[in-house]
Every structure is written in C-alpha cells, then in structure tokens.
Specification:
seven-stranded mixed β-sheet, 27% strand, 23% helix, disordered N terminus, 21 strands
Length: 346
Amino acid sequence: MAFFTLLGLLSCGTKFKNLTVEEFQGRLSSGESVQLLDVRTPQEYAEGHVQGAVNIDWLADGFVEAVQATIDPEKDVLIYCRRGRRSAEAADTLSKLGYKRIYNLQDGFNAWKNANMPITVYDVERFYTSASDPIDITLIKHASLAISYKGLSIQVDPVSKLGDNVTDYATFFPEADYVLVTHEHADHFDKEALSLLGGEVITNDNCAKLLDSGKLKNKAKVLANGDSLTLQNGIVVEAVPAYNTSDGREQFHPKGRDNGYILNLDGFRIYIAGDTEDIPEMAGIKDIDVAFLPCNQPYTMTPEQLIHAARVIQPKVLIPYHFSRTNLSGISAALPGVDVRLRRMQ
C-alpha cells in the first residue's frame, strides 16, 4: 500500500520537483538563499548529513509544528531522506501547507554518498532575523563554531585538532570571510586552521602579535574590550570582556586581555562568551537571541555560575559549550523560560 502511495506522490498531482544529485548540488551551490531539510532520524543525521542541513524527523511527533517554526514557506526548500521515500511524503505535506518551492533529492542521501558528494557530521542550528533571513550556526566542537549568513562565512575559534577530535576544515567548510578568535590558548587559537580558512582575523592584541609573520601577517584586526567593527552585510561585531574572577584562577584569563563577542545580524544578537566566569559586565549584555556560555571549571564557569550568568543575560536560547566532562544535566530545569539546547560541544 505504501509503495502505491509513494508512486502517487511522485507522479500526478505533486507540487514538488525531484532532482538528481547533480541538480540538487547545483541548487545548493548556486549562491541563492535555500533551506536544506534532512527528514531522517537524529541517529541517521548524526552519522553524516549534507552540510547546512537542518534535521527535523518526519517520523517524529510534531514534525509539522517544527517545520513551521524553522522553515520559511516563501523560500526554496531542498529536502532529503535516506532513499527518497520519507522526503517525498514530507514534501507533499509541506506543499499542502503552502510551501511553494520544494525540491526533493531523488534516491536520497544514499545516492548523494554514492556520488562522493561532501558530507559532514556537525549539528546545525538555524535561526532567522526579523526579515526572515536564515542564520545557520554549525556546532563544530568545544569552542569552535561556524556562522553562515547572507553568503558570508564566519568562523569562531577554529582549531583543527583537539585531542582526538580532528576537524577537516578544507573538506567541510568554505573559505572564511571573517574569523573571530577570543584568545591565544591552543583550544581557541590555531595558526594552521587560520592559514587554511583565510579571511580577516578579528582578535585581541596578543593573538595579533602572534600572527604578525608569514602568511598571516597583516591579516588581523585588533579589537579591545568595548571596541566594535562593522563587517559586510551590515554585521556589527562588538568585543566584550572575558576573564576569571575566582581566587587562584585569575592567571588563566586575566581581566582586559581576552575577548568575548556579540554579533548583531540585522537585529539578531549572538553572544559568544569566550573563556570567562560570570563577570559583572554581563549585567550590561541585553537582548540576546542566542548565547554560547562556557562551563569547564577551573578555567571558565561552574554549572552554578553558568546558571547565574544565564539568569542575568536572559537569552532566548542558551547553548552551553566548552564543557568537557562537566555534568550539565540540571541546567535546563534551573532556567525556566530559557530554551536550553545541550549539544555535542564538549
């Protein structure tokens, strides 16, 4: 019965178009603003997916509500599953909900892999500005993030190798337009990754001095705490304090040396705290849509400090990062009203 249902979806009366792997890739690389939707299970997604894909499980309860909260019906939607069946069913449902331009990957992710197309294993969180422009934040590892907005690629604290965790930036990410580096510790500052990614490096004075030679010479733009800079597409980046306050920890991140960053993308505000404790200056950080707060004592915050910081800042979404083996299981319950998202950012 399901087979004949699928045939019906793929033949008469459908309001979506099937694309070959080559056509699908062509639309992804066209430079146009597209939305990429992976409707497989979270387990399938974690094993590998197309870069930039948002995962909403077709088989899970609340699929329609999750799509309506995440995917803009006025923009192109590229959709796929493992072999094309679930995505065809999901595409048909979306067309009935008013999604106008839906493109289904014929034969699914299996065909994509068999064609040796690039895949990634990183989680992606998608958000929207008030003008409905998508912002994709790729959660790479530890303190490393990638932000994609209006065709620009912004990397944050890129590090190629952290213990056994290796990031192949050349395979999974485009060249960067901008790179934000918070400070010079090896889990945040990596000359190899910076050389590979290119782009303008925005950082503190210490890191700029370390980059003042070779291929990276004159690549750094220095921001001190309180400085701001306007980038392409009207993006504003502000450097904010990040430091330790507890007795015996001050030497790890002394006051005035390192940066956190606030990115303003057409009114959508992202706070990337860097290595810090719950410092008094956080009381002045307002209207944050997404906050990345570290939790890795003794170098950054304890879980109690993170909860206090989040209560002060009141972000709409909190994504703890840099947390190593710290137990964060009680964070969500302690922060009612904040959308706490625990991801693989050890």
